[in-house]
Amino acid sequence: MGFFDKIRQGLEKTRRQIGSAFAEFTGGNEAFYEELEESLILADAGIETAGEAVEHLQEAVRAKRLIGADEVRQALADILAEMLSVGDFTLKLETRPSVVLVVGVNGVGKTTTIGKLAARFTGEGKKVLLAAGDTFRAAAAEQLTIWAERAGAEIVKHGEGADPGAVVFDALAAAKARHTDIAIIDTAGRLHNKQNLMNELAKIRRIVSRELPEADIETLLVIDATTGQNGLIQA
Ligand SMILES: Nc1nc2c(ncn2[C@@H]2O[C@H](COP(=O)(O)OP(=O)(O)OP(=O)(O)O)[C@@H](O)[C@H]2O)c(=O)[nH]1
Ligand SMILES: [Mg+2]
Same domain, yes or no, for 71 and 106? Predict the structure, then answer.
């Protein structure tokens, strides 16, 4: 099965669920909107977003006097598409150094993504330095070292169990001293409900802004395509 077929299949349940709300569409009564909102929440749209989308839909139905289920379905699709467009996705990394902070839950591919980014940046002729901010998982720094070698990037690392804040501090000092273009910071995987790990992330972010107040800083959240709402809280 091809990649897009898999995605299509994965989304089939959500589509059916939302579709079934429309099957009972009879002029947009209160029950219809309630069921639609529930379907959107079940599809992990988020309570606030679901509420907002349904509210917009009610307004659109009233304003444009929509009556057919197909028309209303299209109106909802337009509203959701509009809510999804958040502007410019390109990374702004113009200062020297600039910083990319990579975060996400355990095992989603943060370190692999850093390897790919590093290779792309060095390929563009940029000087790249990786910071082994994951001092928690066994062999995380070794894994990052291999990626650094492959990409032709430098690396700053401490021993296992070291303070990630200290690693980041040293890495940024090195980046400044060596005229690095882009410093990429690896972090340990975490769920947003692990407060101590989240505080650690906040600390890393503070160190970066304190040490490089003028720098472009991009935070990249690596997520599995099936993660859902957990991703938002981390970002
Ligand atoms: N299928 C697939 N596998 C991937 C992708 N990116 C990474 N992986 C694999 O997922 C596993 C975990 O990748 P890592 O890059 O170590 O993930 P991580 O987020 O750094 O993990 P932790 O540091 O343990 O939190 C590895 O076996 C990777 O080869 C991807 O895009 N697709
Ligand atoms: Mg990792």
Answer: no
- Give the CATH number for residue 114: 3.40.50.300
Total domains in the chain come to 2
CA 3 to centroid of ligand 1, rounded, Å: 18
pLDDT in tens, 95-138: 999 999 999 888 889 999 999 999 999 999 999 999 999 999 88
Q: What is the pLDDT of residues 168-224, one digit of tens each?
A: 999 999 999 999 999 999 999 877 666 777 888 899 999 999 999 999 999 988 877
Q: Which atom of ligand 1 is nearest to the CA of 107?
A: 21
Single out the residue of 9, 51, 29, 199 nearest to residue 1, CA to CA: 9
First to last CA, the chain: 32
Identify whether residues 27 and 53 lie together within a single domain: yes
- Do 104 and 78 belong together in one domain? no
Report the alpha-carbon distance of residue 154 to residue 183 in Å, rounded.
9
Please identify, among 84, 112, 127, the residue that sits at the C-terminal boundary of a domain: 84
Ligand 2 centroid–CA 53 distance in Å is 36
The parent domain of residue 111 ranges over 98-234
Q: Are 175 and 62 in contact (CB under 8 A)?
A: no
